[in-house]
Write a structure and sequence with these properties.
single chain; 224 residues; alpha/beta; 36% helix
Length: 224
């Protein structure tokens, strides 16, 4: 993507009512005004809140919002030029249960209050295979504790990935720490019992992976 195109998207994001872009300083100082008030001040309803972490173009956030209008969906990514597409689509299609947040995932506990979130989706994250990158894996022990803080007691986490490494690493960690695994499969399209939201929403990159014959894995779990 050209720099001019990126700048145009950044400027357009600033005009979108469904895009929130707090500064890192604001989050680090724990001064984000919507923390604990997403339902009251932004969505203006009491519907459950569902997050997509590392949402990219926002395809999953948009897809989930169309499947269930009784929930609020927030796509989170640090790259605003990417989720511009999802934000624009939500506006064009009058999807009022969708928002996009530009923020680092490691600051997620500064964005949402304790027990404010009902469900988290992690879709095709960078598996960060090298050992020295372990701290950046979105399902490592530190991230799970951050998620546990903002999730309601029965809150769910979903991991959908083409990475067998990420799938295996996460399953091992969940078993080792005693978390509750509700569903796990190494190839969702070979399993007729795969959840609807997993089979019926496909991102641009997922379609490429399928064309290459790569299996798509999925885990749903609760953090204990």
């Amino acid at each position: 993507m050209g720099s001019k195109n990126k700048l145009r998207r950044f400027r357009e994001n600033e005009t979108f009512e469904n895009v929130i872009q707090p500064s890192r300083e604001e989050l680090e100082k724990d001064q984000f005004s919507l923390k604990g008030k997403w339902n009251k001040d932004f969505f203006k309803n009491d519907n459950p809140i569902v997050l997509e972490l590392g949402c990219g173009k926002g395809e999953y956030t948009i897809g989930l919002s169309k499947q269930d209008a009784t929930k609020n969906f927030i796509g989170i990514d640090i790259k605003g030029a990417r989720f511009w597409r999802g934000a624009k689509t939500a506006i064009e299609e009058n999807l009022e249960n969708v928002a996009f947040l530009r923020a680092q995932i490691e600051l997620i506990d500064r964005v949402f209050a304790e027990n404010e979130v009902d469900e988290i989706w992690i879709t095709f994250p960078d598996p960060q295979i090298k050992y020295k990158r372990t701290k950046h894996r979105l399902t490592n022990a530190e991230f799970l504790q951050k998620y546990n803080h903002i999730l309601k007691p029965e809150g769910l986490v979903n991991l959908k990935t083409d990475s067998e490494f990420m799938h295996g690493y996460t399953l091992g960690l969940l078993h080792g720490e005693g978390h509750e695994i509700l569903y796990a499969h190494h190839d969702i399209y070979e399993n007729e019992y795969s959840p609807k939201a997993v089979r019926e929403i496909q991102t641009f990159y997922e379609k490429q992976y399928l064309d290459q014959g790569k299996p798509i894995t999925y885990i749903q779990f609760r953090i204990k």
